[in-house]
Each structure stands twice: as structure tokens, then as C-alpha cells.
Amino acid sequence: MRFLTKFTITELNNGWEWLDIEGIKDGKYFSEEMALRLFCEEELEIPQQFLKEITLYEEQMQIQLCRDRSYIREDWYVNLSRISG
């Protein structure tokens, strides 16, 4: 398996839609950064210490991880590798 730190998500799972992400980041409850981090931590199960940067585009999310080979065999990393485009 190649060691990647940048992932692009173009399809959401578990009943999520891009409008859901837009709705939680509207500033009413969370900042955009906090909303995206919560989604990554809760839905994608990425531990917060490995999240470096998350950027939301129209219907795409780009996730940058901290460079650390310790997670390469973790379930969340393998799943993230599979679902990213």
C-alpha cells in the first residue's frame, strides 16, 4: 500500500449529502473548520491528531493528514484510501 496523506472525497456515505455538510457549517452551531473536523472524526473515524487540513469545495472534500506512518494499517486509513478518488 502506498503511503498517502492527501485524499479527495467525492461521494458521501451513510445517508449524508453535501447539503448536510453545508448545513452544519453555516456558522449557526459550528465554524466551518469544526463542522468538517467533526464529520471526519465521527463519520470517517479519523483521529483528530492526524487531521492537518480539511477543505470543502462544492461537492468534494479534500483531507490532508499529518505525515505519520503509524496509521498506515489502521482501519480508518484503509477505508479512507478506498473511498477517496
Can you walk me through this structure?
This protein has 85 residues and is of the alpha+beta class. Helices cover 32% and strands 20% of the residues. The chain is built from three helices and three strands, in the order βααββα. Strands 1-3-2 form a three-stranded antiparallel sheet, covered by helices on one side. The longest helix has 11 residues, at 32-42. The model has no long low-confidence stretch (mean pLDDT 85).
Summed over residues and divided by their number, the pLDDT gives a mean of 85
Topology as H/E string? EHHEEH
Radius of gyration: 12 Å
How far is it from the N-terminal to the C-terminal residue, by CA? 16 Å
Shape: globular
Main-sheet strand order equals 1-3-2
The largest sheet, given as strand count, sense and whether it forms a barrel, is: 3 strands, antiparallel
**What is the number of strand segments?**
3
Give the helix tally. Answer: 3
Tell me the strand percentage band.
15-25%
The residue fraction in helices comes out at: 25-40%
Name the poorly predicted regions: none
| Structural class label | alpha+beta
